[in-house]
Amino acid sequence: MMKKILLAIGVLVALVLIGAGTAMGMATHKINKTYDYVALPNITRDSSPEGIARGEQVFRAVCGECHAGGGNTKPVGGRMFDFPAELGTFYSANITSDMEKGVGGWTDQEIARMVINGIDKNHHFRPMPPFPNMGDKDIAAVIGFMRSGHPDFAPEKAQPPRSELTPPGRMAFAFAMGINDKGRTEPVPVPVKAADSVEYGRYLASSVYDCTFCHSPGLESSAVKMQHPETLLSGGFEFDLVPLGGEGKLLSPNITMSETAGIGKWTLDEFKHAMVTGVTPGGFILRPPMPKYRYADDVELTALYTFLRSVKANDKAVPPPTGGRPKAEPSADPEKMFSSLGCATCHAPGKAFEAKLQGAKGKAPEEVAKWIRNPESFKPGTQMPTYESLIDENNALALAKFVLGKTGGTVSEGTAP
C-alpha cells in the first residue's frame, strides 16, 4: 500500500511540474511574441486648447508619475516601484519627442495603441498596465498635450533599461493581469462629466486614475476587479517600500465607505483635501506611491466621491506598513517635525528623494518655509504634500532652518534651530 501511495504522489508531483513547465513556456511565449495583428485604433490627437488642457490634466495625474517620477516633470522614464519586487524590475519608457529614444517617430495611433494595449511601435508587449477602457476623447487629449510643443516633451536621449520579468512576473502578466491583444474597433465614449454621476466617477476610478487597480487586492486588471464587489477598493495591493528607501511592504489602504476600516467618516471636503494635498483628515501623510491629484478639478473629485459612496462598504482592516504611517504632529522641535510630517520618509539619508533636499541649499529660510507650506505654488503638480493646514508660519520657518542645516546651506547667525 505504501509503495502505491508513494507512486501516486510521485506521479502527481511529475504532473504538477509538467504543468508548471508548460504554463511557464506559454507565459514566456506570450510575453515575447510579436503582436502585429493588434490593429491601430482610429484616434488622432486633440490639439484644441480645451483638448490640450484636458490632456495635461490626465497626463499629470496618470502618466507623469511613472514616466517622470521623483518630483520631475520631463517624462524620460525611470525605475518604477508599483509592483512587488518578486515580479521583476520595472522601468518606464522615455516618451519625450526624441525620434530615436522617445516617441517622436510614433504616429498618434501607435501611441494610442500603447495606451490601450501595451503594444509598442514594433508590435512588442511592454509590461505596463494598459488603459483599455479610457475614452477616445481622453486619449486624444493626452496625445494632443504630448504633441503640443510643451517643453517637458523636448527631445531627450535618456534610455532606461528594459524591464526584466521574473518567472512569477511572466506568469502574472501573461495570465493574471492578461495581455490585452484585442484591437479597439469601436470608439469608447467618455461619460458625461457631472459631479453627481456614479457613472462618471466609476469611469475615472477604473479607466483613468486606476484607483480600482491599486486599492483592490490581487494582480488582475481593473476591469476584472470591478466584477468583484465583495473586494472592490478594500485595499491589500502590495507595494515594495525597500526600493523607495523604506522598510518592508506597504499594502494599499481600504477606501470603501466603511466607517471602521475605510474612509466612511470622511466628508466630501476632507476627501478632496486628501486627494489634492496628500494629508488625510486624521493628519496622516499619504506617502508614495500614492499620487497627489493636483490637476483634478472639483467636478472630477466630487464624482469620484459619489462613486465611492456607491461601492459596497468593506470592514476588513488593512495592516499599516512597517513603522506605521507618518502622522503630522506639529512641534517646537523641528527635528521631530521632520519625522512626524513624513519628510524623513522621502528625504532622510538613504531614502528615495534624499538628493531633492539639496534643492533648498542657499535659499533664504523664509522662502523654504513658504515652499514647505505650499510646494505646489512653486512647482505645480509636485508630489510633495501641502502642509499649510498642519503647521503655521513660525513652525514652518523653524523646520526650514533645520532643513537648511541638513543641506549644508547657510543659516545666518542667531537663526539656527
TrEMBL record:
Region (Disordered): 315-336
Keyword Heme: yes
Pfam families linked: Cytochrome_CBB3
Gene3D superfamilies given in the database record: Cytochrome c-like domain
Domain annotation Cytochrome c: ranges: 50-150, 329-407
Keywords tagged on the record: Heme, Iron, Metal-binding
Coiled-coil stretches: none
Tagged with keyword Cytoplasm: no
Biased composition range(s): Basic and acidic residues: 326-336
Entry-linked SUPFAM superfamilies: Cytochrome c
GO molecular function annotations of the record: electron transfer activity; heme binding; metal ion binding
Protein name per UniProt: Cytochrome c domain-containing protein
Classification lineage: Bacteria, Pseudomonadati, Myxococcota, Myxococcia, Myxococcales
